[in-house]
Amino acid sequence: QTVVNQEPSLTVSPGGTVTLTCASSTGAVTSSYYPNWIQQKPGQAPRTLIYSTDKRYPYTPARFSASLLGGKAALTLSGVQPDDEADYYCVLYSFVGQYWVFGGGTKLTVL
Amino acid sequence: QVQLRESGPGLVKPSETLSLTCSVSGVSIGRDYWGWVRQPPGKGLEYIGHIYDSGSTNYNPSLQSRVTLSLDASKNEFSLKLNSVTAADTAVYYCARWRPIEYWGQGTLVIVSS
Predict the structure, then answer these.
(1) In this predicted structure, what is the pLDDT of residue A62?
(2) pLDDT digit string, tens, across residues B81-110
(3) Is the sign of the CA dihedral B54, A98, B2, B43 positive or negative?
(4) Is residue B87 less than 8 Å (CB to CB) from chain A?
(5) What are the chain B neighbours of A6 within 8 Å (beta carbons)?
(6) CB contact under 8 A, B102 and A47
(7) CA-based diameter of chain A, in Å?
(8) Average per-residue pLDDT in chain B?
């Protein structure tokens, strides 16, 4: 079964830039995995920020960008704000088994 | 404004069946994908499965033998059944519009306990 790996935790200073990554145990992540990036703040429901690798929703702040980087999906936050402190999950589509797999999440601390 | 709302029992006994419904407002569920995700207390998100308007389904292989998703377009709602539950199935269960993953419900906590 596919395993999706993310950094367990990252710390960034306000105003800084940080990149979160998402790797698949099956090999390089491509657009065929349809990477989604999901933000979850404590006590709240998840909110999808990015879908299909790099597409933002209208409500997604422009400081969030996503791409494929070195065989992984990547989410970059530029000009980080204290409000960005949250858990971030990537989820990939496994086209072999036709199901989706979440990564373990990255706890982002803004300090 | 699209809204999803999960409903169902908050307490289920071990070995019984967990049943949840997701009511959708603001959009017709026809010709679209709808999914379920769960989150055990203090842990990460887990994909359960998703269903398309035609009734075709995809499930997490680790849950496939116990999960059934269904959809009722006339009521604009879709449902999850998980049988033979154990304490490990205690979680907040979320429904969401799938492919792309966009709208989420607020989640409902289901505790498995006798």
Answers:
(1) 97
(2) 999 999 999 999 999 999 899 999 999 999
(3) positive
(4) no
(5) none
(6) no
(7) 41
(8) 96
